[in-house]
Amino acid sequence: GAVVSQHPSRVICKSGTSVKIECRSLDFQATTMFWYRQFPKQSLMLMATSNEGSKATYEQGVEKDKFLINHASLTLSTLTVTSAHPEDSSFYICSASPGPPYEQYFGPGTRLTVT
Amino acid sequence: QQQVKQSPQSLIVQKGGISIINCAYENTAFDYFPWYQQFPGKGPALLIAIRPDVSEKKEGRFTISFNKSAKQFSLHIMDSQPGDSATYFCAASMDQAGTALIFGKGTTLSVSS
User: Fold this and answer.
1) Per-residue pLDDT averaged across A73-99, rounded?
2) Which of B7, B41, B87, B106 has its CA 20 to 30 A from that of B23?
3) Taking 70 as the threshold, does the pLDDT of residue B113 lie above it?
């Protein structure tokens, strides 16, 4: 149990275009999902907390107009990178908890490459 | 206050040896301490977690030791195997809904055969 999926696993897009990444909890409902970003050989950096039916909470320094988060149902959150640029290239990972207890389970990640 | 400090940054252990990774936290409100294992190109996988009501938790070859007064916790991997070669992250949070994990910087473990 407690499986989180992400789609797509890899995406290559051109600079200036937008990309949508989906995060789904497959066998549980999640009121809250989290989005992280990870650069090579570095730790996970929390970008935002996605709350079902309400606005996401963004971490300091994360542009909310660039990284649009929608949590329209208890099993789906989406992250849209708008007007992507090469510096947005990274590994994006989501997590969710079936809680309580509040163990967090991570998706397999999405590798975004902006050319 | 929100930091979780992890050491060492990298670790090389011989097959069959014990791997030990240490973490320290500052925020005394933290009451949930998980360890994650991550292979290249994959998402982190929950390995084992502990809450402050116990000082040690063991699952197979993996053991967490927790010292509440020192605000430290560690992961021990017994009989380390080449398949254990991965990056390990400790994390901490408050054990309640909607609380994000604070991650350590990670430890890259290489188990030589």
Assistant:
1) 94
2) B41
3) yes
